[in-house]
Amino acid sequence: MKKKARCAAQRALMLEKGDQMGLFVPSCKEDGSYDVVQCHDSTGYCWCVDDDGKPVRGSSKLNEQPNCTEIGKSRS
């Protein structure tokens, strides 16, 4: 599966599971890749992800969106 389609596929799978409490549904760009910021609505946490959708360590914020551009600069 192409990297760009992974988010769209994961999102579709989660949406098929229905409206389950606490279920994380990823946010995707139009091309099917992961949005750089992901938020879990039921917990209030947002975090940065890499191109594979994996969380960037230290980027998690409660009730606010992290600045993923700044976090990326500090990690390079």
TrEMBL record:
UniProt cross-references to CDD domains, sorted A to Z: TY
Disulfide bonds: 39-46, 48-68
One Pfam match: Thyroglobulin_1
Location of the protein in the cell: Secreted
Keywords: Disulfide bond, Glycoprotein, Repeat, Secreted, Signal
Classification of source organism: Eukaryota, Metazoa, Ecdysozoa, Arthropoda, Chelicerata
This protein's name: SPARC-related modular calcium-binding protein 1
Domain Thyroglobulin type-1: 4-68
Domain of life of the native organism: Eukaryota
Family annotation (SMART domains): TY
GO cellular component: basement membrane; extracellular space
Species annotation: Nephila pilipes (Giant wood spider)
GO biological process, one term: cell-matrix adhesion
